[in-house]
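Reading a protein record of the kind used here takes only a little practice. These numbers are not coordinates but entries in a learned vocabulary of local backbone shapes. Here is one such record, which you should read through line by line.
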Amino acid sequence: MPWKRRPFSTGGLTRALNISDLREVARRRVPGFVFEYVEGGSEDEASLQCNRTSFAALRLVPQTLVDTSSRHQRVEILGRSAAAPLVIGPTGLNGMLHADGDIGLARAAAKLGIPYTLSTMSTTRLEDVAKQAGGRLWMQLYVMKNRAIAENIMSRAADAGYEALVFTTDANVFGSREWDRRSYRQPGKPTLRAQLDALRHPGWLIEVLGRNGIPRFKNLEAFLPPGAASAVGGSTIIPQLFEPTITWDDLTWIRRIWPRKLLIKGVLSVADAERAAALGCDGIVVTNHGGRQLDSCVTPLDVLPEIVAAVGKRLTIVIDGGIRRGTDIVKALALGANAVMTGRATLYGLAASGERGVERALEILTTETDRVLGQLGCNSVANLGPHILRRC
């Protein structure tokens, strides 16, 4: 048989050489409908694909004969030192990937010395994450029809010591994730095929359903009808809580209530970035929601330079969408981002092996970033800039 290249998908985490290998391990470990929840984008997935191709369109220009023996990745994020230019982004229903999903992600971030962002739609109470993981914690916020939900989340996060609030603004109208929807005969009820596939993953059944049962939206339980807090029951109720009426007035309201650092997640234009700065935000996340909302949307990387030029001196700028390699991180930083936010990359690690898998994902990304800095002739992120990039 002719030699064929294959990524590692078995044999332990140490054999996973890159995020793509971790993805394969994750794909084998969890049922297809669970993997599709992580993997999929909206409609034709054009936004999802372009997030990756926008990175591929940039080439790096190294300088040679530079002593890089003292290189490091330390940066400041929201005015505090971080060991790497990374933030783990907010993702909901992490308990579907691993029983202690949110805590595993937060602990891995704390060990590295970077922030972790807990989702409103998490399956672990925000207080439990603070007690069991610690570290630099950010709280993601959805503002729903019942504004008391947001008030409750903000009050509890402040009491638990969360450093920053991340107000997500681009999901008030849900995207149509068609591949994800094909796994269900109706909301919350997997197809027979999906159920049979779950039986082919006994390790996942024991780890996830066997330990904690069906994951629950534990930060929202007090505001949901009986039975609606589970991933099954909530799938029909939760979308009804969102409405397309959130406006800049809600940001002003949040800024009055929340006493600490505040970021807007969902900015893709200079006009919105400037308005966020004018209304007292400390930072923005330049994102198209990982390609899961508006399809055929601009990519974060494409609009990053103009946003940096407009507000880079006034706001901390974080970017997400398509980060899979150290080269991706370096390209985003060279265009002016202060940090990058990971979503799927660390979720692949979580799905592959819980907290250890997340640690491996972060180790891969930071090792690659260190190597790229050295190969470019850079000793720190401060040496990066548009001068090291060429568009192919």
